[in-house]
Specification:
The structure holds two protein chains of two kinds. By secondary structure, chain A is mainly alpha-helical. Chain A has six helices and no strands. The chains are: A mainly alpha, B mainly alpha.
C-alpha cells in the first residue's frame, strides 16, 4: 500500500462514521420505566396497548424499532399528527426508548403469516 | 310525516359510519399477497434508516385505511409504501385493511 493510499484509507475511516452521523436512538429501553411513562398514552391506546377507538393504532406487540421511528418522526414533524406531535414534543430520547420497549413487550400485533 | 320515515331519516343522519361499507377480508387476503413480501417476514428490516417493518396483523381497520390513504396521497412519506398504495383503489384499501384487521390482536381494548 502506498503512503498516499494509506493516508486516504485513514482519512475515510475517520470521516465516514462522522458523515453517517451519531447513533441517535437504540432499541434498548427499559420496559418497566416505559410502563410508568405510558400512563399518558392509555386514554387513547388502552392500558393493554389495544386502542380504545379504531382510528388509533394498536401498539401492543409492535416492533420496538418501529415505535421508536414513529415517535421520533412525530417529534420532528416528519410524521404529521396534531395530537401525537404535542405528546412527542415533550419526550426525551430515553422516554421514546422506554415507551417503545414497554409497548413492544405487550401481547398483540402479529406479522402477516405466509401461506 | 309518518313516524317510520322520521325514524329512518334520523338513523341515516346520525349513523353514517354504520352505513359505510367495510372492506371484504376474503378479497383482501388475495390482494394482500404483495404485502407479505415485507410484512410477512418476522423481523424484516427497513433500511436507511434501519427499523423493523411494522406488524400489521390485528391492527385496527380504520387506522389501516387512513394510513394507506395517507401513503397514497403522499401525506405520509415512505418511498415503497407510497408506490404500493398508489396502485390501490379505495376498495382495495378497504379490503386489505379488513384482512389485516381480521388477523387477531383485537379491534378495541380496555
Amino acid at each position: 500500500m502506498s503512503d498516499w493510499t494509506r493516508k486516504a484509507v485513514l482519512a475515510l475511516t475517520c470521516v465516514v462514521p462522522l458523515a453517517l452521523g451519531p447513533a441517535e436512538l437504540h432499541a434498548d429501553g427499559d420496559p418497566q420505566a416505559g410502563r410508568e411513562k405510558a400512563k399518558q398514552c392509555e386514554s387513547c391506546h388502552g392500558t393493554d396497548g389495544r386502542s380504545v377507538e379504531p382510528s388509533y393504532p394498536n401498539l401492543a406487540g409492535q416492533y420496538e424499532s418501529y415505535l421508536i421511528k414513529a415517535l421520533s418522526d412525530y417529534r420532528s414533524g416528519a410524521r404529521d399528527h396534531a395530537i401525537m406531535k404535542s405528546f412527542a414534543a415533550n419526550l426525551s430520547n430515553q422516554d421514546i426508548e422506554d415507551l417503545a420497549a414497554w409497548h413492544s413487550s405487550q401481547e398483540g400485533l402479529k406479522d402477516l403469516s405466509i401461506k | 310525516m309518518p313516524r317510520i320515515l322520521s325514524a329512518v331519516l334520523i338513523i341515516a343522519v346520525f349513523m353514517p359510519g354504520t352505513l359505510a361499507a367495510k372492506g371484504d377480508h376474503k378479497a383482501g387476503e388475495t390482494k394482500a399477497y404483495t404485502c407479505t413480501g415485507c410484512h410477512g417476514i418476522p423481523g424484516y428490516n427497513n433500511v436507511y434508516p434501519t427499523y423493523k417493518v411494522p406488524k400489521i396483523g390485528g391492527q385496527n381497520y380504520q387506522y389501516l385505511v387512513s394510513a394507506l390513504k395517507a401513503y397514497r396521497s403522499g401525506e405520509r412519506e415512505h418511498a415503497t409504501m407510497e408506490l404500493q398504495a398508489q396502485a390501490l383503489s379505495d376498495q382495495d384499501i378497504e379490503d386489505v385493511a379488513a384482512y389485516f384487521a381480521s388477523l387477531g390482536g383485537g379491534e378495541t381494548g380496555k
